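Notes, p. 3: input format for complexes.
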Amino acid sequence: MTEIVFEHVTHRYDGGDVLVDVSVRLTERRIGIVGANGSGKSTLARLINGLVEPTEGRVTVDGLDVSRNAREVRRRVGFVFTNPDTQIVMPTVREDVAFSLRRLKLDAADASARVDRTLERFGLAELADRPAHRLSGGQKQLLALAAVLVSEPSILVTDEPTTLLDARNAALVDRHFAALDQQLVVVTHRLETVEHFDRVLVVDGGRIVADGAPAESLAAYRELIDAVEAP
Ligand SMILES: Nc1ncnc2c1ncn2[C@@H]1O[C@H](COP(=O)(O)OP(=O)(O)OP(=O)(O)O)[C@@H](O)[C@H]1O
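Output follows (231 residues plus adenosine-5'-triphosphate):
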């Protein structure tokens, strides 16, 4: 079991506090984070693998302080960004997926078999030799997921992984999520993605304002949105 713990975490950018005294312990396998634009979701997700450090408080992953053990934590926590262009580092699709395996030092045949399986799983096998930067936005998003999952992190954190995907590919990603062995933390505006998760957090104004089973959390979120939209 993996464990992500926030202890009284506040995060401040120049403009002010974007997360305020957040304490939460996450051990469930499928965790969704929803909330309005600018509510602090991405900041919360980025704190999990040290992309952002707490201004106050502490974040640990399996007992490791994320600020002090960044390298070890990043081996465990795979992170997929909203914009896949920021994540593509190699010329072709296959090379990009293979690149993630370099630090595992597998032998060439093992690495190649793992890359093939991953490309197949994400429907990218036929695009393997294409220039990665010329894929469509949605194909790039699938590539970004494949390139992170090929190294089999124990936790996967994704920030709006389906934004660029059509309905079919968004559903494909949802099915991948359902089948993953890893602990999964998904920040999303696509509420369907988290409907069958174990736990959903609702973030508003830098605080967790609802936290529980998806039905209750999503109902609370819808109420929050309705309250804002009401004249
Ligand atoms: N690097 C930064 N420097 C200064 N302010 C930032 C930075 N990153 C985010 N912010 C601010 O922090 C607040 C929370 O941003 P965050 O990206 O965490 O929200 P979010 O809930 O993920 O939003 P969205 O749904 O729009 O992606 C916003 O007001 C944003 O403008």
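Residues 13-15, 18, 35, 37-43 surround adenosine-5'-triphosphate (CB under 6 Å).
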